[in-house]
Amino acid sequence: MTNAVDAGDVGLLELRDLKTHFFTQDGTVRAVDGVTFEIRDGQTLGVVGESGCGKSITAMSVLRLIERPGRIIGGEVLLRGKNVLNYSDQEMRDVRGNQISMIFQEPMTSLNPVYTCGDQIAEAVELHEAISRREAWGRAIEMLAQVGIPEPARRAKQYPHQMSGGMRQRVMIAMALSTNPELLIADEPTTALDVTIQAQILELMKALRERNKMAIMLITHDLGVVAEMADEVVVMYSGKVFERADALTIFEQPHNPYTRGLLASIPRLGDKRERLEVIRGVVPNPLNLPTGCLFKRRCPYAMPVCDTPPPVRQVKAGHISRCWLTPESEPPSIGADAPPEVAEAAAQELTVAGR
Amino acid sequence: MAAYVFRRTLQAIPILFGVAVIVFMIVQLAPGSPIDRFRTPRVSPAQLEALTRLYGLDQPILDQFVKWITAFVQVWRRDAWGYSTLDGQPVLASVLERVPATLRLMGLSLLVTIVVAVPIGVLAAVKQYSWTDKIITTLATIGYAIPSFILGIYVLYFGGVVLKMFPLFGMESLGRGGGDIFDLAWHLVLPVTSLAIQQIAGWARYMRSSMLEVLHQDYVRTAKAKGLPRARVLGKHALRNALIPIVTLLGLSIPALLAGAAITEFIFSYPGLGQYFVQAVGVRDYPVVLALTMVGGLTVVLGNLLADVLYGVVDPRIKY
After folding, report:
1. CA gap B228, A120 in Å, rounded
2. Is the whole-model pTM more than 0.95?
């Protein structure tokens, strides 16, 4: 399955209007509700947002690992132009751990406690490549060495509980990369680790990214990690993409009030403030979403027009934002003092122009 | 590991002594005595008193206890566990004679239980909330709820009377003694079925919940994300972990199995320890009741030790 790398302008992975909903007894949760973005070869895409914004579910949907009561109900996941949502189970298994690998947030629990680390890495290699057990074991040791684990031959024979959290995450990375995937989905890979280990793991991922020429979809709520790693950033909120732009733009000229709020909440060294800057309020209850803009109740720029779902505007080439605010960097030019109908009319116009 | 087992064995001594004290008290407190069965109008009070003296029942309780426990631990002596007040045979010899029969019954039941309950439990967990799951869970609850004496009688009735396929009682056909394996097996079918049904019910439920817990673990998701086929994810990654608590259950269920065997053996007139025990309780055969209760206590201690040792074998995280 690891073919078609020379696919010209066909991107590596493209999500089009992906919808993954959970049908619970209390109602439908639209965990991922119309997500669109793409990842090109070798690119690192940061997906950021608060807990519960749907970023992990998006990643799980790409690999079709969604379990009941969740279901992918719409959209497309194009891998090299082919919709994996139409793949058979067998074809999907050939993608998982081979073309696309995934590492998870919890290194402490993501490895099986009753098998040795080497065994778990070799298993992945053996599955996707026609090689012997012995060769697979050799590859496992080689991978452990690559991710900077000292004495890899001895470590391979150890069980996960004999290693620290950082070591285990390295093992996870070794396992994910052992089949040389084109895309690595990293779901909060450093969240559970302490800061020095975080830095080491990020450095490691960067180095391996260069060496293996792979793309990374980096899911995190840590903007510091994004700044460190990402080429492009997708900001998600309540299952929708709120802003998408290259990393520099997101940090230097964010457009969406939510993104601004996120950036403002990063504590800065040397600040003499008593309290941290926060985004007021909490993420809306997914079973009872507000009408119109999902962020309006917490938004400092909220205006009457926000009761209507906001448009997705193009702020500039490669920079989109889901907001009624106009593309100018300094908001707000509508709604603040205009009556709602006028604001709405003006906004509609802008939407058309923006598209 | 050896040191651990040795330490645990030493710890078992005070536990068993405590069991001995309690068991002795309970037997004393229970209404009736071994001479009650002689209490008929034709037996004079003087004769009853002579019997009481003969069995030492007129002595102070403490003296009786000391005398009993001192003899009891000298298992190398033929009369260590005393003589049955019913048949006058040495209790130790009678117990040893019946152990193989009970072990056969228990062992086979356990085997059948595991072979049936583990797949059923896994199936119910994998298909959680489906009809398969609901049917399995309902049957398991019913199986768990039926008292062993009712179940035993129904199994006996169905297999022995309705189908007429299996013998109604005993361990071997009359006159065919001497270990004809097929004959022994033929006699074991109904008691094993009866005992296994009760055990399967509980085990299937344990297996289901253990498997369900494991299925939601992160490492199962990792296994799926690796691209492993579903059978490998379930069979290799999930099942292996789900079996860990079940192995512990293995050790802990042995005493329960012994207790269940008592009723079952009695119903099927199967000449094992259980039947011996029920019969002895009926006539207050003190030496036999005491000896078998101590055997039961020993089984609990050994079962627990076995569970802990097995835990260390199946779970690499446990080291002694």
Report:
1. 11
2. no
